[in-house]
Amino acid sequence: MYQIYPLSFADSNGDGFGDLQGIVEHLDHLAWLGVDGIWLSPITLSPNDDWGYDVADYRAVQPDLGSLADVDRLIDAARALGIRVLLDLVPNHTSEQHPWFVESRSSRGAARRDWYVWADPKPDGSPPNNWISSFGGPAWKLDPVSGQFYMFNHLPQQPDLNWWNDGVRAEFDDILRFWFDRGVAGFRIDVCNLIVKDAELRDNPAATDDDDPGTRALGQRVVFNGNRPEVHDVIRHWREIADSYEAPRVLIGETPVEKSDELARFYGVDGDELHLAFNFPFITAPLDAEPLRLLVEATEALLPSDAWPVWTGSNHDMSRLATRWAGDDERRTKVALMMLLTLRGTPVLYQGDEIGLGDVAVAREQLRDPLGVKYWPVYAGRDAMRTPMHWRDAPGGGFTGPGVVPWLPLGDTARNVADQRSDPGSVLTFTRDLIALRRQHGELRAGSYSTRGAPDGVWVWTRGSRFVVALNLSESDADLDDMTGRISIATDRARDGEALSGSLRLRAWDGVVVER
Ligand code: NOJ
Predict the structure, then answer these.
(1) Among 70, 203, 212, 242, who pairs with 20 as Cys (CB 3.0-4.6 Å)?
(2) Residue 366: which domain range?
(3) Per-residue pLDDT reduced to its tens digit, 153-166
(4) 468: part of which helix (H) or strand (E)?
(5) CATH of the domain at 232
(6) Sheet hosting strand 346-350, strand order edge to edge
(7) Domain count across the chain
(8) Residue 477 maps to which CATH number?
(9) Are 265 and 128 part of one and the same domain?
(10) Which ligand 1 atom is at minimum distance from the Cα of 371?
(11) Which of 53, 95, 160 to mutate to test the pocket of ligand 1 (most atoms within 8 A of CB)?
């Protein structure tokens, strides 16, 4: 799968923002690359307080991006190329401008009052409990209209829905069907671990030294404003809706939980919840053999036997893998891509990963992300990983017209699709060839994973009975024994096809796929 951040993929109408028609015009790139499915970050109506993750109408397309007719055209054009289209579903919260919230806040007795999480102040006027928003500060805002607080897990402009309310549940059933009926092949579900809140609004317990770094930084454990066990009933129900369609519909959860057993739980006890769940401990791990191997082993051990892992190294919230994992070193980018594309599971590439696109520095006055605006210079926010795609080395980068100022800076376009397509040694050619190899061999797609012994800094595993993957994630050369067969693909392309009769020397950051 391949994640598209629509605002930054391709601008077809010269307004500096990417759009749906831009995606249609670049489907040939994705088909050539070998992508099976694309997930689009939100395309629905939004005032863009959080760039689409604040939805004002779940059934209408953001006019800057296009129209419903454009979505239909995109689905059809993608289908013709064997590519399925997944959308982003944001069920935890809406925009404060959503008509549901406008109505809900109008009075204590409003018909949709209970669609959001409202509570009285404490006697001293302070918020109803100690919950903290993931974006920092209290998770409550006093609304002068009624004198009650409403609750939000992100920005105050993103009030959280009340998932105990049957009307909310019924509405989302309908939203799922609305898009499934149009031919959408599935959803990536935003913060799907957070949507249900404690019915009694109890205080979160304080973090302890034993907690993971995220929890320690927040200062409290998210056990009552999210991560409720009841969320699984909601997901199980969505799975029933997805499964009621003849052609497969996929649910892939944004599941930012810290432990592999919690992640496993989202696949359902009987495989009846999410089809796929993003593995955040893996994304945030360093590009080191031991921590990554341990995470993969834990995931393999804890996921139900028929569950299917997801491996990803970048998204619109995280520094891009070419920067975070690879420090702009192409050897490391390639070895990271080899890892993603040869582990057992679904690799999800983020737009630009295939050319080794790194983060682009965004000056303070150009910031778009509310988190960057709020926390600069302590935290520059998420704009650096949302900058436009590089299609060509030209003014506008092939993203937009030559005279147009893109919504976020382009950065240096020397690393771009057009140049890399014609370069046999490029990251892009490598990514495409790896995907093609995976397509060619069932064992690379579905064969079991098994770790093999390896020197420090090296990670070696088998896929099925015929393939061995060996990655040297270190700065030193490494010698491996018992490597026989033929190299199908190597990060150093000069070694493709090399016959092995026992030993194999890998240089720093070399990776190989060997067919025995
Ligand atoms: C996770 C999304 O990926 C992020 O971009 C967004 O800000 C939050 N959820 C809130 O929707």
Answers:
(1) 70
(2) 2-91+166-431
(3) 999 999 999 999 99
(4) strand 467-472
(5) 3.20.20.80
(6) 276-277, 250-253, 186-189, 84-89, 37-40, 2-4, 346-350, 310-312
(7) 3
(8) 2.60.40.1180
(9) no
(10) 7
(11) 53
